[in-house]
Amino acid sequence: MLACYHPHYATTVESEEEIEIMMDYTDPRYVFLCPDTAHLRKGGGDELSVVRTYADRVKYVHLKDWDPQAFADSQSAPAQGADAATAILPDFVELGTGVVHVKECVQVLQESGYAGWLMIELDRSRSTPKASAATNKAFVEQELGLAVG
Description:
Layout: E1 3-5, H1 16-24, E2 31-33, H2 37-42, H3 47-53, E3 61-63, E4 65-66, H4 68-76, E5 92-93, H5 102-111, E6 118-120, H6 129-143
Parallel strand pairs: 1-2, 3-6
Antiparallel strand pairs: 4-5
Helix pairs in contact: 3-5
């Protein structure tokens, strides 16, 4: 079992500076990184820089995209009632539909010799789960050149 830290928006370690401190103060033999591409960007960082800097310590990856406009819209018109339960997640979007450099992050990992898991992650579909899965699958196969399954 490997200890892989997952930087996450609105938590103790989300910014590049916080990630750097955590990585500097942990033993690279025992503590690894699980970058979540969208959380790195949403937390104000450069996901590509983080992946490049710590590629040798990446052992697991969450591929996710982010739409900053959807986030801004959600802040100006907060959800009410039952919709409020998932309202904190309206800005995570299907791969290829946001601003995250997903393809470039995967290229950096491949160049570094990474051969671990790449998990496609989406917190909430804006259409149907099936349609979102199809969009993500198409991006991974067509843009990344990887097989899903």
